[in-house]
Amino acid sequence: xxxxxxxxxxxxxxxxxxxxxxxxxxxxxxxxxxxxxxxxxxxxxxxxxxxxxxxxxxxxxxxxxxxxxxxxxxxxxxxxxxxxxxxxxxxxxxxxxxxxxxxxxxxxxxxxxxxxxxxxxxxxxxxxxxxxxxxxxxxxxxxxxxxxxxxxxxxxxxxxxxxxxxxxxxxxxxxxxxxxxxxxxxxxxxxxxxxxxxxxxxxxxxxxxxxxxxxxxxxxxxxxxxxxxxxxxxxxxxxxxxxxxxxxxxxxxxxxxxxxxxxxxxxxxxxxxxxxxxxxxxxxxxxxxxxxxxxxxxxxxxxxxxxxxxxxxxxxxxxxxxxxxxxxxxxxxxxxxxxxxxxxxxxxxxxxxxxxxxxxxxxxxxxxxxxxxxxxxxxxxxxxxxxxxxxxxxxxxxxxxxxxxxxxxxxxxxxxxxxxxxxxxxxxxxxxxxxxxxxxxxxxxxxxxxxxxxxxxxxxxxxxxxxxxxxxxxxxxxxxxxxxxxxxxxxxxxxxxxxxxxxxxxxxxxxxxxxxxxxxxxxxxxxxxxxxxxxxxxxxxxxxxxxxxxxxxxxxxxxxxxxxxxxxxxxxxxxxxxxxxxxxxxxxxxxxxxxxxxxxxxxxxxxxxxxxxxxxxxxxx
Length: 621
Known about the structure:
By secondary structure, this protein is of the alpha+beta class. It is 46% helix and 16% strand. It has 18 helices and 19 strands. Helix 3 packs across helix 10. The radius of gyration is 29 Å and the shape is globular.
């Protein structure tokens, strides 16, 4: 009966969420759909409110910074966009504009005089949030994206188009060009008959993706090495007391949720402060990499029995007091978050990009749902303890597996050491980092060798103090940054024109260079990566550096530009944000006269070849 109630409760919650995120009809359009250089047009987004009890509110004092916005996604050098025009409200209450039934936001634009003829796909994004007319209860803000087609004609071509004033007073039945697809590769004419685009409430979809993504994070290379250790601990606890198992799981979940909530708070505070943080900003921090390196190294030594960590189920000391075990479970959740966070982007890239455009409360909810999904496997085991019977019984295999995982953690330690090198490019600092690791090992050995029951209490306290003092001293002495450690960064010297990158065949990316190449009508491929980005290296190794792909670039005359986001770079950050990305890997193909094609986080050679096929083969001179 209890299981049935749990299922009914879950179903009830899903129904509530689904009703909150009910679908609305959204229509994107552009008029006229054919313009020549110097002409004006209007990009529109129309919302048809299907629920007669709902309304859309807008505060004019917020301008275009509120919850009702129409934005153009990406860069369009051929066009000049103006501010969004909000329609006259159906009602004004205390200075707040209210819309009922149907309303349209408009964004006028002008085709630049130097714009080249061709077809152009424009991606737009509408954010809105409906509220109940009487109760005032508001739905979560929703974001809907769409693509409209614009045909830029030669300057000498006459276009039969209406004046801008007539466009604004057009009737509802006027044939606009309406987005019916988000495709970036269509070569067909834009339809002349309007077709409404209906999108479901994407909020529910991405929230469900957040939970699913949290579950998947348990099986990523970042978390998988420590997952079996946690599972073994739970097995040991369950054999004694199911109630304690539930308590340990709740504290583990609390540690996970608070950690994900904290990182969401960082993004919210940064947003309020006017700082744009891209995903992966932690990896650009030397301090963060040093902390993770230290934690992984000490945990690795613990699994190799150099010293013992007081974690629930790992040793008799932890079992002696439930207080210590409970604290261990909480920090186990925090550590699991730290491991999982660096793997989050590749598995949840598209959902994260949408999440960072949500309102601050919804952004926090999104990260908390990731944390909930992350802890969900252990929550299920706690609610249904019989599932533990499917797990193997404790035995010597646990010790062997634990020691094997110790070597895995030491290998992961080296990953963060290499990140420190990539961020500093300093040989002396790298040597000091390795010396710090050595002294951490000495401290861990002293603690593990002498802080145990066979020695007197004063010996244990003394050696504990000595071990901690060694770590503090070595960190303050070896990890202190000295000016002479800084290498001569010749790559930062500004060079006019196309500056060759470190990799042959590539040039250093700058927005100015990209714009210049676009004006010359040349196809351009932009890759922005980082030394700490595993997926960037995977794309380079398996796709971009392959001989057949290089030949495809060359025979189609594609200029390849590379940006390095290993360290904080506001120019690269701003460029990625404007092109709908919150971090690396960033790969985008710019084709003259067409909408840029953004590649996914991880892509194959066939994906890239399919995009490159839209560029005609360059004839040999």
